[in-house]
Amino acid sequence: MRSPHRRIGRHSLIATAALALAAVAGCGGGSSTTGSAPAPGSTGFTPPKIEALKSLGQGEGQVNLVAWAGYAEDGSNDPKVDWVHPFEEATGCKVNTKTAGTSDEMFNLMKTGEYDAVSASGDASLRLIASGTVAPVNTDLIPNYKDVFEGLKLKPWNSVNGVAYGVPHGRGANLLMWRTDKVTTPPDSWGVVFDPASPYKGHVTAYDSPIYIADAALYLMSAKPELGIKDPYALDDKQLQAAVDLLKQQKANVGEYWSDYTKAVQSFKSGDTVVGTTWQVIANLTEAEKAPVQVTLPKEGSTGWSDTWMVAAKAQHPNCAYKWMDWIISPKANAQVAEWFGEAPSNAKACDETSDKTFCDTYHAQDEAYFSKVHYWTTPIAQCLDGRTDVKCTDYSEWTRAWTEIKG
Amino acid sequence: MTAGAAMGDAQATGLRRGVAAFLHRHARVRLSLLLSAPLAWLGLAYLGSLAALFVTAFWSTDTFTGDLVKVFTWANFHDLVSGDVYRTVALRSVGVAAAVTVIDLVIAFPMAFAMAKLASPRAQRWLVILVLTPLWASYLLKAYAWRVLLSSDGILGWGYGLTATIATLSYLWLPYMILPIYAGLERLPNALLDASGDLGARGWRTFRTVVWPLTFPAVVAGSIFTFSLSLGDYITVKIVGGKSQLIGNVVYDNIGAANNLPFAAAVATVPVVIMLVYLAAVRRTGALENL
């Protein structure tokens, strides 16, 4: 609480300083683990050596999960939405879920060592692997893995050097949405949100996160090929600066940045926003509110997300964790979670289990051509993810500062 | 059996008496026992967390593994001072906080005066309840309600931005300004107003020479609430701020998105310093002594 002090005397300031010094002395001698980044290999880094589970044993009676909201529903939000209780009945593993709001919260929760599995997005998964927090996954022990779309297996964000570090949960693309009554010619390029002479000045929207810099980089890949951007998550100083300049120029036309989807839905509904980046679930909700909107995957492709269930290196309940990973990608549960959350399922057979039979078409679940144009969120790191070794790339902390600078 | 229980009771009573007698004789021990819990709270939880913040600001993070690197460095403060953007954001935040404080003061003072001096005792109670009612609703709910009001097809239709942020924050923190001023005005004897009138002073002069000086400490108390609450806010500006950002957002982005706790801590010292300057300035006026 920032309640008013009656008197800020010198004594209290001295006490603060003394405490500060004591804290320095107390912590300074302690662990100063620099967490030295491993030497860059062909894919950027070499992960710590951790063995995958060899064989599946008896369940341990419970499993502790870190999950995105909506990924482990037990009927408490909607009695009809429940794939946790059936799992508990089938396996005898009681599920304890800790919901996390951001990738960083997930990362920090997993580092406590108290959890067995996590639904990590691409902007956390590599860090979890590199820090030795998660173990490789023996996919032979997960029968449903064989039905997962090939386009999701052994990808840079869920594997290292051909070793799987998790099972794919689902995916989605960041799309371009516009109001059909305000934007008369249907756009097919991200250029419409980056055009300095935009006719929609003050009504453009963008995603309020440093990761949005990748959207600018993606556009520059085709708009300014001379910059040589190969991967929107591997930007050297010059390329980052180009993306930052583009976003600063875009800011003049931006009405607002959005970070939660209710805000985005409301803004498109009221017409404050007429064009900008969005998610499929937002488009569906806005249409349900009777607003005339349409979405497209622009010709440049787009950014997107692909989440992965990973198992902790020091899991106390590894057998139950494996059983959960198999359950969550089983056709029925995978269909349920995909429909509840609004994303494409990872299991090909899930499309037969959805309650809305057109669901997989709406979310392009089986459309590999569609997803081949999607660059999934990945943590930008100093070792260039596109394989360049002659330059140092900008990491996520630099992106964050750049984002602050862009917003000004 | 019963004899043993009775003896146990007697022993317990004796112990209690002994402790009571000991505490009675030793005033200092009594005092320290009384104060230890609140002091532990103030010292460890309150000042301790501030100290931890300050210390963290001199560390850095390994950006890939997310581990804290506990080696002393000035780098965070260097970045903070050398980046133009942080100065702009800090000044903007101070401007927003000052505007909110002034707006709240202008609205709250007549309101509080009417409540304290003009309303009947029965109406007074109801007015206090009315002022407090918005505090029963969730902060987020109110901010989103303003978002709807301000949207281009809303009742106000101002659109989003800094003005919208100031309006929303002024609404949110208004009760924190009204209540201290109301309490201050209630303590002001009506006889003083009458005396001022009897001596020939008109309304404005009475306000300027009697009411204002005597309620100034209460105004300061209210302004500390509205100023500090606005200075640290980052949610309202996310909801109605359009594309602008305040100090709170910079802190939040560095913790939430970048996991760069040390830099966030360095940024977070800025509002602490601003509040210290503000309190020091207030102290000079002598208002704190009269609270």
Automatic annotation (TrEMBL), chain A:
Coiled coil: none annotated. Keywords: Signal. Pfam families: SBP_bac_8. The keyword Signal applies. Residues 1-22 form the signal peptide. InterPro entries: SBP (IPR006059). This is Spermidine/putrescine ABC transporter substrate-binding protein. It comes from Planotetraspora phitsanulokensis.
From TrEMBL, chain B:
Keywords: Cell membrane, Membrane, Transmembrane, Transmembrane helix, Transport. Residues 90-282 form the ABC transmembrane type-1 domain. One of its GO terms (biological process) is transmembrane transport. SUPFAM superfamilies: MetI-like. The chain crosses the membrane at residues 33-59, 89-114, 126-146, 158-179, 210-231, 261-281. It is a multi-pass membrane protein. It is found in: Cell membrane. Its main location: membrane. The keyword Glycoprotein does not apply. It comes from the Bacteria. GO terms for cellular component: plasma membrane. Belongs to the binding-protein-dependent transport system permease family. CysTW subfamily. This is Spermidine/putrescine ABC transporter permease. It comes from Planotetraspora phitsanulokensis.
